[in-house]
């Protein structure tokens, strides 16, 4: 969330920055917001005027004889003035609350280094790694490879749960587990992350903290509503970013402890509202999928460098797996609403001849930290400041499995296991269950 007071005092500047995202983003600071800002400004002036008046009259009263009629009258007038001040402060508090609610729905401001543009066509490829695999045959899509090997079953999953679910059998299930273990080992043993296994259900307050609520509720699976016994809703997590980032909600960390780096495996659950007709086949867009997430907490001064570091850590997973990919800097119009700057890692899928996003590595600035009240103390006994949060997929496991099946497929329908995964798989080639 943006700083409500900063937005109120720099409306035109903030609206211009949001306009880099889209006209709709700029319009989020509309008439209701403008009226609330005007009312808040007037309330501030009224309270400040009353406080000045009380100070002046208190000084005048101090010069009067305490037994005089003027003193008694002045005392009663000050009591009435105190009541007006309390009423004005209450009104100001309500306006501050409304302003914060309105600002909570406003997207993050794009970093100045983010390119302008309305959609993915304006994204900038900053680097690529490896080369596109070449085949002496027409490469198959992962759903054909997986069903041919008997390791992916979409029909039985539909029987169990409906569309956009998958059952993995044999080497398919083992490959999923191997990818998870490989990623966690790399992040924790070599890159310095602390492994976390968080709950897979969270309160609505956690989803507000990371920015999914209230705007993106339709993409979430709500599993239990608040009741007389429990004053919060429960949701299945859409990503480990939610519980891991909120580990430090309402905390003040010491500067010496930063940066803090966590890696977490979780299943993820998304309703995929509004995505009908997109990626309906295969594993690309599922209601349930696995992911290994990397999250970093850092100071504002170091967050840019930490963002580059986190991105390199996600890239290393693809490099170790020998998968051709590229890294793109997203333009303002293609970024997620809560991101300040995002790199997308896009892996090559030979069956479609396209690059597909496999990880988004984002710097949120203080946007999430303000919502979740995650602060740090720059120096002992110093005034707490909001820190910066960053996260990325390291990686989306299902999409990594897709890339392995497609980039390592063989003419006979088998799939070569990347060397980095062989210790976890116990084989060099997948030939079926």
Automatic annotation (TrEMBL):
It comes from Chondromyces apiculatus DSM 436. Its EC number is 6.1.1.11. Residues 47-105 form a coiled coil. The keyword Ligase applies. GO terms for molecular function: ATP binding; serine-tRNA ligase activity. L-serine binds at residues 239-241, 270, 293, 391, 393. This is Serine--tRNA ligase. The keyword Nucleotide-binding applies.
